Amino acid sequence: MGMALHVLTGAKYLNTMTNHSVCTIGFSAIMAVISFICSLPRTFSTLAKLATASAFFTFISVLLAAIFAGIEAHPTGYNPDPNSIIPLTGLHGGAPTVLAIPAKGTTFVAGMNAFLNISYTFIGQITIPSFMAEMKNPKDFPKALWCVTIAEVILFSLVGAVVYAYTGTNYNTSPAFGSLGNEVYKKVAFSFMIPTLIFLGVLYASVSARFVFFRIFEGTRHKGSHTVVGWASWAGILACTWVLAFIIAEVIPFFSDLLSLMSSLFDSFFGFIFWGTAYIRMRQDDYGPGFYHRRGIRGIGGLCFNLLIIAIGFFFLGAGTYASVQSIIDGYKQKQFGGAFSCSNNGL
Description:
Layout: H1 2-18, H2 24-39, H3 44-71, H4 108-122, H5 128-133, H6 141-171, H7 183-191, H8 194-217, H9 228-251, H10 255-287, H11 291-294, H12 296-333
Helix pairs in contact: 1-2, 1-8, 1-9, 1-10, 2-8, 2-9, 3-6, 3-7, 3-8, 4-10, 4-12, 8-9, 10-12
């Protein structure tokens, strides 16, 4: 589903840049093919160069989005009449409405979807085991994780706050580039995301394909050698994943709800349940089944805290998935987006 999100976002980008010059299905197919080709390297050492470019251009892109939001006269769709309805968001017009807490009448589905969209930005642990496996010194990984986490929390929190301050609840879109009223600003800021649009989809494809590939060829020479069977199988597995991603992107052709669905299904486990369970298993291995008694208050406190993390994960898995699916159903009923495999324009 992570790959599908990037197929969908790539189609959004191409539609935005070309003013919908081609059917959206065609743009999605183009993005899937490009991503498939970039996924072919079998080691992360090759992807590391693309990752560096991705990180740099993402920083430039979100920085430009924040700057442009601050210097332009009005966000997209601006209407000074507070009684008007903004087509882009379905909310009342007037000056941008900035709230510290959700507005009165906000539904559980809307609130949960908003949280899931935010949590997706900060939870990337699904890829950690694969990264660690290819490091020369896996013990150095915590240092890199600390640096990346601190940087992303600061960057995305500041940029999100600045963009929201200038666009408000009534003009804010997902992705936020769509909130920029100036077409040049929007296209320039969005264009710097090209490496990331490709790289993150490629990363998810590589991690997913490795799980399948390693289990099929475990203990054989095809796993680590350049053989025709090995490369053909690797390409075949990747092709299957990208075809599936293309289908998902066409069946769920809406950015925000697809993001929420991914977050509820996967981030609930890899962001909460997995780590709480891992803590308990590791302490049991180190101190035995009754580790929380042997370690005193630290053991009891650690156990309670991690059980809470696991419970939160299951809540997001259950309630979050319900909210995501319900939002998709509501969107189809209200005709907020085109149907599955639609040629309609999904540009910003």
